[in-house]
């Protein structure tokens, strides 16, 4: 299958329903500034994504092959060994909002861009579910765990080809620009999986679920 380009992706700017802002105080200066930015820049925000549907061609101990490219990862082996097809995807909030950092605090603009990225990722998953029938979608992202480092972005970019169509480039260190961009593999049937379960950084401020030592040892030992 040829790659799918979603550009732009429309998201609802209902700040009260955006995950990132659920704990914000509505009377705070930051909250009011975010609302003002959205009101003044809504039309210029161009979040976008690119996807490619891939066959899982081979799954061997500790390795998974997609589109002729082999990833060495116990995590991917464990999660994809019963899967026939996956979506490689790259999602970005874009960099259009950077133009207003002189008018608004850069830190507040960056919070909004992160929120837009999260909402865009949700829209991509909704698209995959509605169009291709995927249920209980989970995601595996390079760099999220040591077993599958960020260097694997090189392979994802090779498989998708011409990611520049959505304005994303890969740097020498394998991180991506614009800053609020994420890459990964979408697969179905594993709604309860989240990287936090397998992450040993116990004190991480972004932790959403507790570390599961039993599951960690099952996969990586």
TrEMBL record:
InterPro entries: VitB12-dep_Met_synth_activ_sf. GO terms for molecular function: methionine synthase activity. It comes from the Bacteria. Gene3D superfamilies: 3.40.109.40. SUPFAM superfamilies: Methionine synthase activation domain-like (SSF56507). This is AdoMet activation domain-containing protein. It comes from Acetobacterium bakii.
């Amino acid at each position: 299958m040829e790659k799918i380009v979603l550009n732009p992706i429309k998201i609802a700017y209902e700040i009260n329903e955006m995950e990132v802002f659920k704990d914000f105080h509505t009377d705070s200066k930051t909250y009011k500034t975010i609302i003002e930015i959205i009101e003044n820049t809504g039309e210029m925000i161009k979040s976008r994504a690119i996807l490619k549907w891939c066959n899982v061609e081979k799954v061997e101990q500790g390795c998974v092959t997609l589109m002729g490219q082999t990833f060495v990862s116990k995590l991917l082996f464990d999660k994809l060994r019963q899967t026939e097809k996956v979506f490689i995807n790259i999602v970005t909030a874009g960099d259009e909002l950077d133009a207003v950092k002189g008018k608004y605090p850069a830190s507040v603009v960056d919070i909004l861009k992160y929120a837009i990225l999260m909402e865009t990722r949700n829209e991509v998953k909704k698209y995959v579910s509605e169009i291709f029938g995927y249920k209980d979608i989970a995601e595996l992202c390079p760099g999220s765990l040591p077993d599958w480092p960020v260097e694997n972005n090189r392979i994802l970019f090779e498989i998708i080809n011409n990611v520049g169509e959505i304005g994303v480039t890969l740097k020498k260190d394998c991180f991506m620009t614009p800053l609020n961009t994420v890459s990964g593999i979408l697969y179905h049937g594993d709604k309860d999986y989240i990287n936090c379960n397998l992450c040993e950084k116990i004190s991480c401020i972004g932790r959403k679920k507790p570390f599961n030592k039993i599951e960690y040892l099952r996969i990586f030992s």
